[in-house]
Amino acid sequence: MEYPRRHSDFLPALAFLLPNFLGFILFTAGLVLYSLGASLTNWDLQRSVPFAFIGVENFRKLFGSEEFWVYLINTLYLMIGFPFAIAGSLILALMLSQKLRGITIYRTLFYLPTFTYGVALMVLWKKMYNPDFGPINALLGGVAHLLHIPFEGPKWLNSAQNLMGMVPQHVNLERRYLGLGAREALINMTVWVALGGNNMLLYLAALTNVPPELYEAAEIDGAGKWSKFWNVTWPQLAPTTFFITVITIIGGLQGGFEAARIMTEGGPANTTTTLAYYIYIKAFQEFQMGYASAIAWVLFAMIFAITLINWRFGSRAVNE
Question: Are the beta carbons of 295 and 275 closer than 8 angstroms?
């Protein structure tokens, strides 16, 4: 049945939408375009040089700077833990989807770190990573003592070592930098927080929507637990996994600011400085607003391109 359109409703509807629309134009779209214009200038709040339009000079300088590539590598390196976080969220959701007494309490307990994630939790993790009296090194030392293994605890947030041996502040590798350091500390914290977070809730919701008759048909065919998961559960979770992957990658490229600001201040030797924190340094510490705007637009272009690639190939795989 088609309802007749009432043109008299158009103006009242427009009046209700206008405040939000104007807010978007003034405080979102307008500022985004303003930052694009700023990226083409030498805008410096210290006024060390006269304000001028310099075209793409900021972008040319950015791509020619080793500093930018080091911080890009830092950003990508800190995303290494994301596959483990997604897989852990799926495993946790499978466990919490069982019909057991008190399962709601367990779900709440696992989700609690997401509520508390912020300054307080990061300060707590910073204390836990203390190399001298932190509980993490104390636990590792106790295990090593029981196994009669010599143990020297990692320096964690005070160390520039990493699992790939990357040299601080340079795009290079050296064996002496192999080990556990600040990057791995932040990765461990991120994975721990993400395990019981929103990804777990998304997987729980997706698991409840899997048709029970698919499992019944698989059991009739003699499928075991692994076979039912691989042939029934996993294909049904493919759209959710695709969505989580896209959102996680976007968040990873944009992230790292809070942890760097609170726990490491980008150190040691800028090993935890991400592109997001680099924008903050250039804009609010060195006051190079034009250069910071250029970094922001390069980051936007990266996120946009990677998201398009994900949608181009990932959505095809999901639909197949």
Answer: yes
Single-letter code of the amino acid located at 110: F
Q: What is the pTM of this model?
A: 0.89
Gyration radius (Cα) of the chain, Å: 25
pLDDT for the residue numbered 316: 66
Specify burial of residue 120 (Cβ count, 10 A radius: 0-12, 13-18, 19+): exposed
What confidence score (pLDDT) does residue 283 get?
Answer: 94
Grade residue 53 by pLDDT with cuts at 50, 70 and 90: very high
The sign of the CA dihedral 123, 299, 68, 190 is positive
What is residue 7's DSSP assignment?
G
> Would you say 86 and 199 are in contact if contact means Cβ atoms under 8 Å apart?
yes
Three-state DSSP at 53 gives strand
Alpha-carbon gap, residue 217 to 246, rounded angstroms: 32
Contacts of 250 (CB under 8 A, 6+ apart): 303, 306, 307
Q: How many other β-carbons are positioned within 10 Å of the β-carbon of residue 181?
A: 25
Whether the bond into 50 is cis, omega within 30 of 0:
no
Residues 26, 29, 33, 34, CA torsion sign: positive
In degrees to the nearest 10, what's the CA dihedral of 203, 80, 247, 251?
130
- Gap between the Cα atoms of 123 and 115, Å rounded: 15
The C-alpha atoms of residue 272 and residue 268 are separated, in whole angstroms, by 7
Q: How far is CA 311 from CA 132, 226, 304, 307, 319, in A?
A: 47, 29, 11, 6, 11
Token pair of 265 as six digits: 């201040």
User: To 5 degrees, how large is the angle CA 172–CA 175–CA 178?
Assistant: 95
pLDDT digits 0-9 by tens, 65-81: 999 999 999 999 999 99
CA dihedral 249, 252, 253, 255 (to 10 degrees): 150
